Amino acid sequence: MKAHRLRVTFTRGEDLKYITHLDLMRFWERALRRADVPVAYSEGFSPHAQISLAAPLPVGTTSDGELMDVFLERPMTPAAVIRAVGAQLPPAIEIRSVEEVGLALPSLQADVRFAEYDVDVAAAPAEAQTAVERFLAAEQVPWEHRREAETRSYDIRAMVEDITVSEATPSTARLKMRLRNDNNGSGRADQVVAALGLGIPSRVHRTRLLLAGTSPAREAWRARGRFAT
After folding, report:
1. Does residue 119 sit in the same domain as residue 98?
2. Domain ranges, residue 177
3. Per residue in 138-148, pLDDT tens?
4. Looking at CB atoms within 10 Å, which of 89, 133, 172, 198 has the fewest?
5. 146-198 per-position pLDDT tens digit
6. What is the CATH number of the domain that holds 18?
7. Any idea of the CA torsion for 73, 26, 57, 79, to the nearest 10 degrees?
């Protein structure tokens, strides 16, 4: 029985950037169990922990702002969860905040609208700026994504809300991307870089996920790593 719902913001560092979405779900289920958090389980022949991640993080990507909802059988304070679960986590995973949310709110997966990334590419900032301006000025950018035997064709421009360019080093540009991530499609940072003609990114880091009705001030608070108590 679900009696309480907590929303966890956490990081994923370099040492765990190559684990899959399924592996991450299993990791959290084990960590919560070891911490004696009273997680609610589904009914039926094969009960599973009632936890959900907002959006899969591509393999090879690090993050500062992953979101997870945990449903509990009985209330537990955010501060107690941070203390108990934090002791079970490796250095590559850190809880940034925990807050109580209503049971009746939409699921995290249904509520995500955008994902923001910092992406480093081996290109001079001026070169990257030219490529970005050309891309953003286009009404459509046809794109094909091949995965095993399947080829998907779509307009990759429609996946991009905005891109800005800054200098990481004189020969490396940092692209700050806001990509769509909703029921109609999810942009991938590495594919956007390929569509820009800038090769393979040397670093892809998700900085935050934006939900429907997100307050910029609230997200800035979350990004600074303030803990709910």
Report:
1. no
2. 111-211
3. 999 999 887 77
4. 133
5. 777 788 889 999 999 999 999 888 899 999 999 999 888 889 999 999 999 99
6. 3.30.70.580
7. 40
Asked if 147 and 194 sit in the same domain, the reply is yes
Higher pLDDT residue, 3 or 50? 50
3-state secondary structure the chain: CCCEEEEEEEEECHHHCCCCHHHHHHHHHHHHHHCCCCECECCCCCCCECEEECCCCCCCCEEEEEEEEEEECCCCCHHHHHHHHHCCCCCCEEEEEEEECCCCCCCHHHHEEEEEEEEEECCCHHHHHHHHHHHHHCCCCEEEEEECCEEEEEEHHHHEEEEEEEEEECCEEEEEEEEEEECCEECCHHHHHHHHCCCCCCEEEEEEEEECCCCHHHHHHHHCCCCCC
Specify if 229 maps to a domain.
no
Give me the number of domains the chain comprises.
Answer: 2
Q: Are residues 89 and 142 in the same domain?
A: no
Gap between the Cα atoms of 189 and 207, Å rounded: 12
CATH number of the domain residue 175 falls in = 3.30.70
Would 228 be classed as within a structural domain?
Answer: no
